[in-house]
Design brief:
Number of helices: 4
Order of helices and strands: HHHEEEEEEEHEEEEEE
Number of domains: 2
Length: 289
């Protein structure tokens, strides 16, 4: 084989390789999209005119249900009224002793808004990539939301909807990113661009909050991924760094199957974990009235 022929073959192979790489790049960019957000991240603002619901309301509703159940049981077990009536009476008295009413607004409530540039949302899972156990981390700073802190009555504090631009979540692998946007989260579609967490309850808040002291509590809410909504509880730790700044973290674990997150078949990828850890590191700044 002449040197000229050899160089021609090498040139053809190089050209084929470049063409294949370009084709793959175009495919990933076209099918998975660019990962750029369609609009600046934002979230609904908290309605400060609505008083914080008194958590005793749920307890009262439960007590009322118990009263009704005990009354029905008493009607069918009339032969043993003494065993039933005292308990029903005690529940009824407890219900009357805790009237359902909204907690009054406090003049020490401060509204904070998440600063995307200083915050980060992550998902973490594991997989075998070409036979090597691998931890996959997808992250973005496109997160928004508001937090209302009541310094005089921390139990009245609230967290608004946390909205994340799922389209901007990125790992260290562009092919994986394309699959996430196109096949898994389908965030390249306009209707699925955003993932939302809407808090429904906060538990474990202390009686007092002091600047510089971390506060640990739980936030339960509805997590919406694409068109599927499931309840999720985050373990959170928040520190009021100053009157103008909050810093915090929150973590939860979900199951892929609960949100129908199917992993497409891909060469070299196997044993993707069912469990997915969700984490957020946030910084929130005071919103001036």
């Amino acid at each position: 084989m002449s040197s000229r022929t050899f160089m021609s073959i090498v040139g053809i192979l190089v050209l084929m390789g470049v063409t294949a790489a370009a084709t793959i790049f175009i495919y990933v960019s076209t099918v998975g999209g660019s990962g750029e957000p369609s609009e600046p991240i934002s979230a609904p603002t908290l309605d400060l005119s609505t008083p914080t619901p008194d958590p005793r309301g749920t307890q009262i509703a439960q007590l009322s249900t118990q009263v009704a159940e005990l009354a029905a049981a008493n009607a069918t077990l009339s032969a043993q009224p003494a065993a039933v009536l005292p308990e029903a009476t005690a529940v009824a008295e407890a219900t009357e002793a805790a009237p359902a009413e909204a907690a009054p607004a406090s003049d020490q409530q401060t509204l904070f808004r998440i600063v995307p540039e200083e915050s980060e949302v992550r998902f973490i899972l594991t997989e075998d990539l070409r036979g090597v156990p691998t931890t996959v981390v997808g992250k973005t700073n496109q997160v928004a939301g508001e937090i209302l802190v009541d310094f005089s009555a921390p139990a009245n504090s609230r967290v608004g909807m946390i909205r994340i631009n799922a389209r901007t979540l990125a790992t260290d692998n562009n092919f994986r990113n394309g699959a996430i946007r196109d096949r898994i989260l389908q965030s390249n579609r306009a209707e699925y661009e955003f993932t939302e967490f809407t808090p429904t309850a906060i538990s474990g808040l202390p009686e007092t909050v002091e600047i510089g002291q971390p506060v640990t509590f739980q936030i339960t809410g509805d997590l919406k991924v694409r068109n599927i909504v499931k309840p999720v509880t985050f373990d959170a730790t928040v520190t009021v760094v100053s009157e103008d700044r909050l810093e915090g973290t929150a973590k939860a674990t979900i199951q892929r199957g609960d949100f129908n997150l199917q992993i497409p078949s891909a060469p070299g990828v196997a044993n993707v974990s069912e469990a997915v850890d969700l984490e957020i590191d946030l910084v929130a700044a005071r919103v001036e009235a």
